[in-house]
Amino acid sequence: MKTQKKRTILAAVLGATCAMPMMHARADHEFGDNTPFYEDDSWYDVSEWFDGNDYNPTDEAIGRWDDELFTYADNATSSDNDNFLNWGDYGYNSGNESDWFYDYYDDGYATWENRFYSNYYDTNDDGVYDAYSSYSDTDGDGLYEDFNYYTFNSDADDQEKNRMQAKSQQKEMKSTEMQVSGNVEDTKMVNVRDRIHLIAMVSQSNGQPMMVDLGPDQAEVQLFKGDRVSATGHVMKVGEKSVLVANEASMKNGTIAIDRSGKKYQGTIEKVKTVSVRGTERKLAKVKTANDKTMMVDLGPASNLDSDLEQGAKITVQGVPVKVKDRVILMAHKIMHDGDQTRVDRRVAQAN
């Protein structure tokens, strides 16, 4: 069956959860020089760390000399299976007859928490996320009042158009969770960007089936046709289909919490640097991973981080890859170090 091309720039989403004070973004903010997340001066200062010594782990190919510059042509021919760029629009694989849900789709690492919704976007479908939007329900009325959008790549095309498309979704979204309960009619493993997710078709009491995304790496889930399942989360639109992006699910073998923090990498910090990004001091780290590659990681606000996250520290990070000019940087959402776990707050106020 022919792949549906292309997905809309933003999925229509019904949004997030409980109460917490928020940083207020200005919904009337005009698109301008402050919109890129990384100011040029800060980013180029950081790039001086890299001396042509494998700063970008995404375009290597076995048996090919690497010039240490990321290009999408290189990446397309790469035999390196540990890179970020395993992606696709929503659609079906050729010859697949199981068409009750897509074989692959991009969820944009959608995150709902504390009446706050955020999503990453690949605005030009080149395989790397290059923009981000967030929405917050500041008064708890179920509607998102505040909107924030920025791009990681100041060279991206149609930035204003993309921002306006993101903003247009604000009125369609609600910050309340939804619960789906019923019997499993079928299950399917689906490629969601760089991970494999378990999708269940759940028959509700009203007779209408609902697709439920139970998240990545659910090896412990024992779910079969006819089983009873109850899931809580938020609904997003993928093409013409709706899917509940579950954050928790209960079934016969127990209740699971679903981790959507991103792909996991282990390594050692080689260098750290604190830079000012949109008025906040943030810590960036150069990390040598377990397979001897080097990656740049944005660890988040420096004030919220363990002071021991310095050169030589062993860490595990989970996050989302984004493109800044010709470099890929991992936006950490969870950091594990010395037995402690830190969730990175990615809520960012608009720059003045």
Describe what you observe in this structure.
The chain contains 3 helices and 17 strands. It has 352 residues and is mainly β. It has a domain at 178-257: OB fold (Dihydrolipoamide Acetyltransferase, E2P). Mean pLDDT is 75; it is low at 1-34, 51-70 and 81-88. InterPro entries: MamS_MamX_dom.
**Could you tell me the mean pLDDT?**
75
Q: What ranges have pLDDT less than 50 throughout 5 or more consecutive residues?
A: 1-34, 51-70, 81-88
Helical fraction: under 10%
CATH homologous superfamily descriptor of the domain at 178-257: Nucleic acid-binding proteins
What letter string, H or E per element, gives the SSE order? HHEEEEEHEEEEEEEEEEEE
User: Biggest sheet, in brief?
Assistant: 5 strands, mixed, barrel
- Briefly, what CATH class of the domain at 178-257? Mainly Beta
What is the SS-derived class?
A: mainly beta
Could you tell me the CATH topology label of the domain at 178-257. Answer: OB fold (Dihydrolipoamide Acetyltransferase, E2P)
- Spatial order of strands in the largest sheet: 6-7-8-10-9
How many runs of DSSP E, i.e. beta strands? 17
Report the total helices: 3
CA distance, first residue to last residue: 49 Å
Query: What spatial form do the alpha-carbon principal axes imply?
Result: globular
CATH architecture tag of the domain at 178-257: Beta Barrel
The amount of beta strand, in percent, is 35-45%
Rg (CA only): 20 Å
